[in-house]
Structures are given as structure tokens and as C-alpha cells.
Amino acid sequence: MTGEAALGIDVGTTNVKVVLVGPDGALEATAHRQLRGHQEGDVGEQDAGATWSAVASAIREVTGSAPHVAAQVGPIGCCSQYSSIVPVDAAGEPVGPMVMWTDKRGTDRSLELLGLPGAMEAWVEHHGIPPVGGGLSLAHMLHLQRDHPELHARTATWLEAMDFVNLRLTGVAVANQSTMFMSQLCDNRTLGVTEYDPVLVGLSGIDADRLPPLARVDEPVGPLRRDVAADLGLPASAVVHGGVNDTMAAAIATGAFTPGRGGLSIGTTSVLVDTLDAKREDLDHELLSMPGPFDDTYVLWAENGIGGRALEHILLHVVHAVDVLADHATDDEFARLDEALASVPPGSGGVLFLPWLNGSLSPASSPTMRGGFINMSVGTDRACMVRAVTEGVAHNLAWLLPHAERFTGQPMEQLAFLGGAARSRVWSQVLADVLDRPVGPVPHADWAVARGVADLARCRHGLIDRAGLEGQVEPEALYEPIDENRAIYAAHQEQFVAAFEALRPIHEALNS
After folding, report:
1. Which distant-in-sequence residues (6+ apart) come within 8 Å of 35 by Cβ?
2. What average pLDDT is seen over the chain?
3. With 90 as the cut, is the pLDDT of residue 46 above it?
4. What is the mean predicted confidence (pLDDT) over 142-159?
5. Element (H, E) at 41
6. Residue 450 has pLDDT above 70, yes or no
7. Which of 35, 115, 144, 346 is the most exposed place for a label (fewest CB within 10 A)?
8. Distance between CA atoms of 489 and 397, rounded to whole angstroms?
9. Alpha carbons 297 and 84: distance in angstroms, whole number
10. What average pLDDT does this structure show over 92-100?
11. In whole angstroms, what is the distance from residue 79 CA to residue 161 CA?
12. SS3 448
């Protein structure tokens, strides 16, 4: 098997990324496709069929660009964003849209469960997260089951996005403890479980026959369907390995299994990643351990909330807006980002950006919190605002970092950085300065999560060993904190947290 290539699939919230990795471990081809969703009030949906079409199209592009490598593909790995449920029928076809992690429906159904005797204690002890809804998969399944009985009657099983893609690849509907984490129906005190927790399933009232069977996290799903293999330009002998969520793929991609190194991902959201050896929870700061990609390791769950999406929003709707006021359209809104950031001194002229455009998550959760710019003056221009956004995202991470380190019991002495934001050398420096530790973008940072799940599949397929998988990631550059920037960012950090506390009751009144 030493001569086999690998395929990695990363299904995000706004795009799909696919990478083809050669037998020697080199990145041979990449492709991406945009994904469109519908967000209105509590509703957050995406066309599951269109998601699969995007995956298939991206795979065809990479196999078509390197057919000699594609013909050698053995393992295939898929990861995705999570807490997004696809209801499918017995033939594997979606019977409704994917209910995304941004969808808040079913929260009322979840909160009803908290009134059951012993429910709160059972969920925290067994799983880690109480049934609070707010976008979690359990809430989505309860919503589909109880509020859409006609759709529920046509549903054979509920699948997370990565398991849905694997179903389309193999014809097999199966999940694992990793992919079903947000169903809140597994006993996470033990790793490697292949059955749902009967206590939690009973308390939830979920129709257990709609839950996908659980395989071991390292168990293959199966070979490609022959018709799918022919359509995608892949060998029918290729094996699809069990899915993982994108946080776990990021742990692989950043080398977070290495002592002293943490992972930092800034894509649509900002996430800190590290590993630990036991189930823990810190509900005050929204920190949890979730089952990792191996049956002896947990991964830190520390979702910081909107990250790169905040910058994208400001660039698209403020800097390069097309509206009744003017047409400022550009082919690439990020093209002059570093030039703009470098034109503004650290601190953005005193402007603070609060990045909670869709509520806040860890370390202080509030669904009603919102963001914005504060301390603007007549001297504030667009470049100041753009730099303030990058600093605001960094300040939110700096607020989270000490809580995460206390939770895992180990320092993140260096942060390996991936995601679209890692393309910016100035933003990398801002992060190093605000977080006050070295930050290093990983090679091919835009593709690192897809590459990480491809490498995990290579490991599970026997092409590389675990030591090689965990130790192969090295940042392509390392940005050290600049001493003279420490004082201004420390002062801004204090006021950033103070702004959250001061504005929280106002946003609760406006948005409750």
C-alpha cells in the first residue's frame, strides 16, 4: 500500500475544499466550490443536494487535473462543519434541507428536557453539554421530529454533513462518536463507543430508529460505489474512512498533538485547538472535551465565534459595498488587505471592533450579543476599521486563551495557524502581538484542514504511522510578538472585555 495517493474533503459552511495528496505526501491538486445557505431569523438551512454536487464537482476537478495520481488513490477522508443535520430517506436522498449549526429552531424542545428529573446532571455527567439548543444537533433532530411530522415520516436517518457525504460516496449510512458529538446522545466518559447512551436517548424522546448506526472512529465506512468512482475519476478500490468534524481535522493539520503547541483556525469562525487525556467540561466558559480522532485522546472544544466571517462582512458590505449609495465592487476584496493593514499603526487609532455579529460563544456565551465598532472619531477611516476588525478577532481569542490553557492544564507556547486568515502576514503578526506568543501559519494554510483529513485517512489506511502523522506539521514562518506593541494591546484587551460586560445588557434588551 506504500504507493497509494489520498483524497481529502473538507465541507465548510461557505465552501467545499478538496485536496489530492500524492504517494510521497506532496499536495498534487486542489479545488474549491462555494456553498450558498439561507439564513433568516432562527432559520439556517443549506441545500444538501447542492452540497453533494459541490463536493463531486471539486473532486472531478482535482482528479481531472492529475489523473495519473487520482488513479492511485487508496484512502479517502472527509471532515465537515458540524451540528448540521441532513434528513435522508432509505435510498440516501435528502428529504429536506440541511439544518445548519446557525439554525436555532428546536431550542424550545431542548429546554423542555431540562425540566425532567435528573436530566441536567445526566447530560453533563455522560456527555458534557446540557440540552440547551442554540444550534446543536439534538435540537435540530427534535425540531424535525416534533415540528415536521410529515418530513419525519419520510426520514430513514439523520446524518451530519460529513456522514452524508460519505453516504453518497459509499452507499453506507453510518456515523461514529466523533461525528455525532453534537447529537448529545453518546456517553463520552468512554472513548470508542459504538452504541448510543440509553439514558440520554430515553430522556431525549428521540426516535432511536432514526439515528445512524455507530462504528468505531477508526473503522472504514467502505469502498466507493462503482458508479460514483467512475463519475468522479477515482478507482473503485478506494476506501472511504470514517468521518471527523473539522475541529479534529484542524488538530491534525496544526500538529496540536505535539506538547506545547496549540492550533488556531480562523475561517468562518475562530477556534482554538489542543488535546487532553480525559473528559472535562467548564460550562461557565463554554469549554469541553470531545472524543478525538483516536480512541485514546480527547480534543479541546473551544469555539470562539465568528472570526474571518467578520472581516469578510466588513470588506463586502462596507469597504467594497454595492448598494444604492455606490458601486465599490472588486474582483478580490482581499487583494489589498495586507497593504491596508500595514498602513495603520497597531491599535487602529483607538478603534475597537467587537466581533460578535451572531452572538458570542466561548469564553462567555450570549446569543443576543452583537458586534460593532466603538471609540471611532473623525480621524477614523476605512483602513482603520479593517485593521480594527483583525485586532478585534485577535482580542476575542486572547480572552479565550487563558481559560483554554487552564482547562487542558498545559500551555500553548506556540500556535500553528490555519484557515483563510493565515494568508495575511500582517494579521499573523497582529495575532502574535495580541496573544503574546509565537504564531506560525502552516504550509498551504487555506487547504490545511482538507490536507489534515487526507493525512488522517493515510494513517488509518496504514500508509503513515501515528508518530509520523502527529509530528509532520511545521509552520512555514513564525511571527514573534513585538515588544513595543505589548502595552497598547494589553490596554485594549482590558477594554475589549469591559466592552462586552458593559454592552451585554443593552444587546439583551435589543435582541431578546
Report:
1. 11, 12, 13, 14, 15, 16, 46, 50, 51, 54
2. 95
3. yes
4. 97
5. none
6. yes
7. 115
8. 13
9. 24
10. 97
11. 8
12. helix
3-state secondary structure 106-129: CHHHHHHHCCCCCHHHHHHHHCCC
**DSSP letter string, 362-396:** TTS-BTT---EEES--TT--HHHHHHHHHHHHHHH
- Find out whether 452 and 8 touch, Cβ atoms under 8 Å: yes
Give the burial string for 290-315 (b: 16+ CB within 10 Å, else e): bbbbbeebbbbbbbbbbbbbbbbbbb
Q: Read off the amino acid at residue 11.
A: V
**Angle subtended at Cα 407 by Cα 304 and Cα 102, rounded to the nearest 5 degrees:** 25
| Strand-pair partners of 354 | 372
| Tens-place pLDDT, residues 56-84 | 999 999 999 999 999 999 999 999 999 99
Sequence-ordered list of residues with C-beta below 8 angstroms from that of 505, at least 6 positions apart, any chain: none
CATH superfamily of 255-447+474-512: ATPase, nucleotide binding domain (3.30.420.40)
The answer to whether 264 and 416 have CB atoms below 8 angstroms apart is yes
DSSP 315: I
Comma-separated ranges of CATH 3.30.420.40 domains in the chain: 5-242, 255-447+474-512
Domain boundaries 5-242, corresponding CATH code: 3.30.420.40
What pLDDT, in 10s, does the model give residues 178-234?
999 999 999 999 999 999 999 999 999 999 999 999 999 999 999 999 999 999 999
Contact 455, 252 (CB under 8 A): yes
Tell me the pLDDT tens digit for each residue of 382-439.
999 999 999 999 999 999 999 999 999 999 999 999 988 999 999 999 999 999 999 9
Rounded to whole angstroms, the Cα distance separating 295 from 398 reads 30
pTM as predicted: 0.91
Alpha-carbon Rg for the chain in angstroms: 22
- pLDDT value of residue 1: 42
